[in-house]
Amino acid sequence: METNKxxxxxxxxxxxxxxxxxxxxWSKNTNINDPFVKTHVKTAFTIQxxxxxxxxxxxxxxxxxxxxxxxxxxxxxxxILCFFFFGALGYGxxxxxxxxxxxxxxxxxxxxxxxxxxxxxxxxxxxxETKWVxxxxxxxxxxxxxxGRHQELDKIKDIVFLNLIVTCIAVVLTLIGFTSLASIIxxxxxxWSVYQSIRLISQNELTTIDTAFIPTPExxxxxxxxxxxxxxxxxxxxxxxxxxxxxxxxYAAYIERERIETLRLSEKKQSAVPSFLxxxxxxxxxxxxxxxxxxxxHIKNGIVITLFTLLIIxxxxxxxxxxxxxxFPVFYGIGYHTRLWYHMPYIYNVYxxxxxxxxxxxxxxxxxxxxxxxxxxxxxxIQNTVTNNVTKIKWNEIVDATQENIETQDKPSIQ
Length: 415
Hints:
single chain; mainly alpha; 5 domains; two-stranded antiparallel ribbon; 13 helices; 2 strands; 2% strand
């Protein structure tokens, strides 16, 4: 069993770097060019190759002339293949994380479902208020808002993340036209949620699905940034740093920055508008008048949400199903509105891009104006200098002419 953390995380990353992982085989870094890493690279590459080949083959298979619940067998088979191969990649990464080697044959013979996903919680000792919070956490969108306010509650993360996954799948299926399948998925989830709510109230029991392997939106954003740094360091052959070390460093920096910024914002005055309103599209435009208050980060998050809302309305109309996507950041933002410094992952970055662009354009106009004033000032100076020189030359000519006339008059005439 492998114990070196750097080697382990290199092996894990091979499953997420499609085909790029082949470069590990020729790396001169001892933490990458390692038998443990090479074994996982070969396994990951084989699974990735089979996935791509399967998708290519299915794209050329003729459509069969019947459908099941509105979908052709080709579509259903393609979805099943994707689930199978991504499950295989997940299982390989899981084995690598635990320092174990695995071959392609072993991956295909073992299913990731063997992991103990279902967690049975018997005789939960919770008060009435907590029970109702956990029950309402099952409701799409409402659950995201409750999670932001009650993250300390046990099991709420598992409930809300299952809620999020199911809702996202249903919304995406609706957007691409698979409305019937989306309805079936949501109906199944509703039955599950009602059953769990009844058990929680009557028997103090609750069954949840283990979502510990799914990172929070903030952690996911940090992992995304860390992957860019990790890839850049490997390609540029700079000093090696494991992916886990980069993630830990960036997460610690994020927490420290939030602490400092929260203290800074707490010294500002509070806005006259309730902070949760800054996440309601269109209405939050009022927040532009309160950018110097404690709620400035929430206002910036909300403005970006409004921009996306207006963009969808302008391009696709008020009846567009794409507006469903806006509900995700709206309810998540409302859930986190009590945090003074909350940079909503990816959403706040859009504001940062706009702010950077506006600042640079403003600086360009300012420099242009300063340059124009400088040129104008220099032009005036040159004109004044030329005028003075011309005047001086003319005056000298007048003086010389006068002196010459005087000399001519004073000169005696010759008889």
